[in-house]
Amino acid sequence: MRERVYRAGVIPFYVHEDGKIEMNFMIPSDTRYGGSDPQFCKGKVENSETHEDAAIREAIEELGLRENNVSWFSYLGQFLGYTHIYICEVTDREAFDEPHYETEETMWLTLEEFENSGRELHRPVIREAHLEFEEIKREEDIGIYEDETYEYEKLSYL
Predict the structure, then answer these.
(1) What is residue 65's predicted lDDT score, i.e. its pLDDT?
(2) CB-neighbour burial class of residue 122 (10 A; exposed 0-12, middle 13-18, buried 19+)
(3) Residue range 119-129: average pLDDT?
(4) pLDDT surpassing 80 at residue 2
(5) Which of 1, 72, 104, 107 could link 149 by a cystine bridge, Cβ 3.0 to 4.6 Å?
(6) What distance lies between CA 101 and its chain's CA centroid?
(7) Residue 103 in contact with residue 29, Cβ under 8 Å?
């Protein structure tokens, strides 16, 4: 019997002044890990990590996410078997470090752009994430979403 492999990932969102919403994706440097299409960052949950810790670590490694660039962070759900996905909003789309060697390239895409060029397996997850992000932003605008999102906290491995 195969051992369950739990994975976790993050989809960072950015909202432009004109309201345009983009998400940050990566293309792996080794196409054996998801092909050559844009995909959300994700990776294996290590033994001592929570799903949340693993998701954040993967975003730091694969996208160059900086903790001080995250305004909020929220759990989306479990997808693709045992992959736990989170979403977050960043305040500056340029304030990212260089990604880890496993990343060939990072890019910002709208939902429509991802639907046209992103990894097919990830498209339903991205649609769900986009809907959830829009809902959070609507509820944030009227001040009723504070219970479900939380401030990004510095993690012990940073």
Answers:
(1) 97
(2) buried
(3) 96
(4) no
(5) 72
(6) 18
(7) yes
pLDDT band of residue 143 (cuts 50, 70, 90) is: low
Tens of pLDDT, residue by residue over 23-69, are: 999 999 988 888 899 999 999 999 999 999 999 999 999 999 998 99
Residue 47: name the closest of 85, 3, 2 by CA. 3
How far apart, in whole angstroms, are the C-alpha atoms of residue 77 and residue 28?
Answer: 23
Contact 18, 30 (CB under 8 A): no
Q: How far apart are CA 119 and CA 108, in angstroms?
A: 14
Query: How distant is the alpha carbon of residue 145 from its chain centre?
Result: 20
Which one, of 63, 122, 114, 131, lies nearest residue 93 by Cα? 63
Q: Report the C-alpha gap between 153 and 156 in whole angstroms.
A: 10
CATH 3.40.1080.10 at 7-141, yes or no: no
Q: What's the DSSP call for residue 147?
A: T
